[in-house]
Every structure is written in C-alpha cells, then in structure tokens.
Amino acid sequence: MLNLYLFQILNGLGLGMIYFLIAVGLTIIFGLLNFVNFAHGAFFLLGAYICYTAVSLTGSFWLALLVAPLVVAALAWVIERLLIQRIYHLPHMFQILVTLGIALIIQEASVMIWGPVGKSVAVPELLRGVLVVGDFVYPYYRLFLIVFSGLVGLGLWLLLERTRFGALVRAGSESTETVSLLGTNIFRLFSMTFALGVALAGVAGVLFAPLRGAQPFVGPEILGVAFVVVVIGGMGSFSGALVGGLLVGVVQSLMTTLWPQGASLMIYGAMAVVILVRPYGLFGRA
Amino acid sequence: MSEKNPLPFAKTQSKAMLLWVLAVLIGLPLLLPSATLATEILIFAMAALACNLLLGYTGLLSFGQGIFFGAGAYCAALLMIHLQLGLFTALLGAAIAGGFLALLVGALAIRRTGIYFVMLTLAFSQMAYFVAYTLSDWTGGDNGLLSVPRPEIRVGETVLLSLADARAFYGFVAVLFLLIFIGARRVIASPFGSTLMAIRENETRASAIGYDTRHFKILVFVLSGAVTGIAGALYAMLLHFVPLSNIDLAMSENILIMTIVGGTGSLFGSLLGAGSIVLLGDFLSDLWPRWLMLLGVILILVVIFMRGGLWGGLASLFEKVRGTRKSAVVAKEQGL
C-alpha cells in the first residue's frame, strides 16, 4: 500500500515537471513581455501532434523531441512578428482575446490536419519496460520524464541566470525602456522570449504524448492546469512555477488512487483552497 | 445641447432603442427560416447581455459564463424531470443556481484582480466541467441529460398556453428577453450601474471615493449569473436535452465572443453579436465543420480593427452619415 502511494507520488513528480514546463513558459512570457498568452495550451497541443507526425515519419521519438519544439517555436516567432507585436501596448483584456482567437485557429487547424480523433504515440523503445527495485516497480519513461524535465528546467535556469540573454530578459522585465536605451534590440528580445516560452509548451506537449497521446481538445484543459499552477505559485516566478507544478502534479496523481473520477477536479479544489487561505499564491506578496 | 439637458436626450434615445429591440423581436421569426433558430438567437443574446454587464459595464472579463449557463440548464432540467416542477419554478431554480454559483466563483475570483481574475474564472470553468462530468448519474456525463420537458404556462390546473409549438416558445422567450433587456437597462441607468462604470473606468478611484468595489463586483456577478442561468434553462427546454458541452469552456468562450463581436458597452450590441454568430454558425456548421477557426479570425480582427464591435461600427457609420448630412445643411445655410 505504501508502495502504491510512493509510486503515485513519483508519477505525480513526472506529471508535475511537465506542468512546470508549461507554466514556466507562460511565466517567462508574462515576466518580460507583460503579455498574457491564452494560446499556450494550443501550442502544447501542437507540440504533441508534431511529435506524432515526426514519430510516424521517422520512427524516432528523440528526433521528435528535438524537432517539434523547434517547429512550434518557429511558428510562435512568426505569429509574434506578424500579430502579437502589434498588441503589446493594448490592455491585457485585448491580448487575452487575440490569443484566444489564435488558440481557436490552432485547435481547429489541428483537427483539420490530424482529424478529430486523438493519435497515440508509443513510448520510445529505449524507455519501454520498468525499473525493479526490490518489490517496487517503476516505468522507465516516467523516470525519464523527471530527469529530462529536470535537465530542461536546470538549463532554463542557467540560461536565465547565467547568460547575457538571461540577464537581458530579467532586466527587460524590470524596465524594457532602460534595456532598449542601452542599445539592445528589444523587439528581437521580445520575439526570442516569446518563442522560448512557447517552445517550452511544445517540449511539454512532446513529453506528454506517450502518456496520453495527442488529443485535439486538450488545449483548454492544459491552459486551465497552467493557470492553476500560476495562481498557486505566482506569475513571473521560476520557483513558483516549479513548486506549483509539482504540487499540482502530485495532488492529481495521488487523487487518481483515492478517487479516480475526481482527480482532475481536485486540482481546482486545491486552487480554491489556496485562493481562500493565501489570495496572492503561496509565494506571492500582496 | 445634450450637455445642457442630458436627461431628455437619453430618454428619447432609450425609447428608440426599445423600439429597435421590439422590431428585432418581431422581425426575427418572420425573416428567419425557423422559429427555433430565432429562439436560439434570443437565448444567446440573453447570455451575451449578461456577459456584457460584466465586461462592458464593469470591465470584468469572465471565462466563467458557461458555468452559469450549464448550471441553469442542468438545474432546470433536473427540477422538471425529478420534481415535475412547472415552467416558472424551473426558471427560478435556474436563476438561483446560476446566481449562487456566480456568488461562489465571484467571491473567490474577485479576491484577485486583473489577469489573475481572468485566469481564475477560466480555471473554475474547467472545474465546473469536471464536476458535471464526474456527476454523470445526474448529468448523464458525456451522453448529456436526455428528455428534458418543455412545460406549458399554467395557473393551477388550467393550461394557459402550450409551448410545444416552436413559435409559441419563441414568443415566450421573446417576452422574457424584453423584460430582461428592460431590467438590465434600468440597472445600468441606476446609481448601482454608475458605480459599476466607475469601477470599469478606475477601480482605485472608485474605492477611494468610498465604494466597496468588491461588493459591487460580486453583486453584478450574481446578477449576470442569474440571467445566464435562465438562458441556460431556456436552451435546455429548446433542445429538450442538456449536452455536456453546455458547461464546457467553449460555451464560455462562445458567449464572450458574441459579446465582443456585438460590441461591449451596448446592450443592443449583445443582440447583434449573438444574432450574427448564431446565424454564422447555423449557416457554416453544415458546410464546414471547422468553422470555429473562422470565429478565431473574426475575434482577432474585431479586437484589432473594430474594438467597438458591430454596434460600435454601426454607431460610427451612423455618426458619419449624420455628420455629412449636417455639414451639407450647414453648407447650404451659409450659401456655399
């Protein structure tokens, strides 16, 4: 019995790391660009579908893991250049509506391309099978999820904290004007950050595909989960996204054992409790 | 002139508006191929109008309207199926269900402002969907809630009017719509309405003057939820069926899009928005099942190029026509 809980907690950590990747992308975009991306779930969806196509064409999940986020990022770059750059100055309400429009377009286009029925993606051959430690059994792919997302998270942290690009992004979220006055092409920085944030959603989509496949209408659900994470952890905070993501993943996973039908429900319950007790999130300041 | 004596001007304008609404209500079933389609338009116009109270008049962008729509639909349907309640009690139940849920969602979401508020309404919308999905014994889950009756209007045991006929039901919905429209106009014209608009314009200032803005926001949320609940109940009666999609996020988005396309800040705009989107959907859904894509494009175009929506577009067109006519008159008078 204890093993079962341990198993679910580990499962939850894997799921939580995926949620972290989604939420941290949302958060980076909001932090620097002060832009609310309601199309984030749709880009996640696109990542999962491109993964499906790449795997069925080449047979290699690893190639898909490389290519899908790049394709999603490239698309995000184009959309940012053509459309989103024009609406940075508008109030959040209009940004939300435009990105909602983008999300609808991506979702319907995905159904047109890949059909209304979900596609399944096989777990890569290398990661099939289970790890056995004593009488504890754990699938390799889940283990890979934790390790890989952890590495991506670490890389992202290093990128944001230890590189020139990261310094510019952080400086930009304090004051875009100053950064721009100091001679940085702020619009290129914006495009890159938007593409980076969206690429993280794409990575999450690829990692998610072997678990639940690519489903055409999963976008809103993922967006809802990302918002729960962000409400719990606070928007614009790397550690908030990490802790929020893991918390949501573990809660959802544990609830799958206790009350399978209500598992998805409980994460929203958790959010409601956080809002009641700490309206500004676990790490938020009033 | 309107500055000197704003009230009579506003009054004639409001009367003209009511006449327009009456004209639309009478014209819809005559012009459209089916009364059912006309009824659908009015039902969604009701929901859009309730959304407009939040978005257009209070500045609250809510992704939770589907919660109240779906809750109203389920509540009325369950009351009619299990308790054999009549038309008006079922509608009242729907209004209470919608209002009560709006109180819950509002009280929680309004603890935060700005984008967090929007994100919370969206998250609660997802939650409501999962609740409806989980309680499949009551809601029918994925299959939906079947065989919802459409009760007749009766006093005691005497049946006054059967609503089985599509035209009769349209008439009933039209009367309800008119009452709600007039009620909403009253609310907006009242001091309560002015306070809402003050919150929309500058919440900090409104609260600095001494208004408990949270209180006002929750109240308008409840009002909006109750009206949306009634719309949901009517929709259940129209379809004789409550699909799970009534409470999902797409419903919230649809209501929001109708409101924005019609034009925020004008109640007549909501009627325009609901009418055009429902008609577009009815026309396109057979030809092109992925027509929602077009809705996404329309939404983007409206936000970028026509932020006043259809109503704003019409109004500025009207102003232009009147302006050129006026300048023509002036030119004539000056002998040019």
Report on the architecture of this protein.
The complex is a heterodimer of chains A (286) and B (336). Chain A has one domain (2-117, 139-277): Orthogonal Bundle (ABC transporter involved in vitamin B12 uptake, BtuC). Chain A has eleven helices and two strands. The model of chain A has no long low-confidence stretch (mean pLDDT 89). Chain A starts with a helix and ends in a 9-residue tail after the last helix. Chain A has 286 residues and is mainly α. In chain B, a hairpin with a 2-residue loop joins strand 1 and strand 2 (158-161). At the A-B interface, helix 4, helix 9 and helix 11 of A face helix 5, helix 11 and helix 13 of B.
Q: Which band does the percent of strand residues of chain B land in?
A: under 5%
CATH architecture annotation of chain B = Orthogonal Bundle
Which chain pair has the greatest contact?
A: A-B, 44 and 40 residues
Largest sheet of chain B: 2 strands, antiparallel
User: What sequence of helices (H) and strands (E) makes up the elements of chain A?
Assistant: HHHHEEHHHHHHH
Q: How far apart lie the N and C ends of chain A?
A: 41 Å
Mean pLDDT across the residues of chain B is 88
Total count of helical runs of at least 4 residues of chain A: 11
Report the helical percentage of chain A: over 70%
Coarse shape of chain B: globular
CATH topology of chain B: ABC transporter involved in vitamin B12 uptake, BtuC
